[in-house]
Amino acid sequence: MKNKLLLILCFALIGIYSCSTDDDKSEVNFIRAKFNGVEQKFNIISVDIVDYVIEGYSDIEVTATMTSDATKTIVLKSEYGTTGDIIWGMYYTTDGTYYQNDENLTNSNVTVNSPGRYTGTFSGTLNSSTGIVLVTEGSFDIIY
């Protein structure tokens, strides 16, 4: 009888513990950064893997918008499956103005870049015909 009670207690604890890990998923699927000092969080995420068969590599392209403001969009592009300072494309649209990075004006540290997960940090300067945007404290954690 004691063994059955212990077994029931173990299953109850496992059930409670597994529910708490589901709650942790609310802290993923975002891109956030400060744009000219104003923090913004993008939480509508689209991920595409683009294969370049002839060249022998793939890129990951993440597009994100804000639930609260659909006029703001950010796009991050890097080679798929590699880590480090690899983000080569960063694009930001706000109120109809399109900003993009110059090659040497993006810093990144992609720490996870594997099937189903993309995680890291970024910063840089984005340019448009009307001015620049300084991007600081950028981070992302995406499960797809």
Task: Give the number of helices.
Answer: 1
Q: Give the ordered list of helices and strands.
A: HEEEEEEEEE
Q: Main beta sheet, described?
A: 9 strands, antiparallel
Instruction: Indicate the radius of gyration in whole angstroms.
Output: 20 Å
Total count of domains: 1
By DSSP, the count of extended strands is: 9
Morphology: globular
Beginning-to-end CA distance, first to last residue: 45 Å
Structural class: alpha+beta
Helix content: 10-25%
User: Strand arrangement, largest sheet?
Assistant: 2-1-9-8-7-6-5-4-3
Q: Which parts are unreliable, with pLDDT below 50 for 5 consecutive residues or more?
A: 5-25
Strand content: over 45%
Return the average pLDDT rounded to an integer: 86
What are the SSEs and their pairings?
Layout: H1 2-24, E1 30-35, E2 38-42, E3 44-52, E4 57-65, E5 73-79, E6 87-94, E7 97-114, E8 117-128, E9 131-143
Antiparallel strand pairs: 1-2, 1-9, 3-4, 4-5, 5-6, 6-7, 7-8, 8-9
Describe the structure.
With about 140 residues, the chain is of the alpha+beta class. The protein is built from 1 helix and 9 strands; from the N terminus they run H-E-E-E-E-E-E-E-E-E. A 9-stranded antiparallel β-sheet has the order 2-1-9-8-7-6-5-4-3, with no helix packed on it.
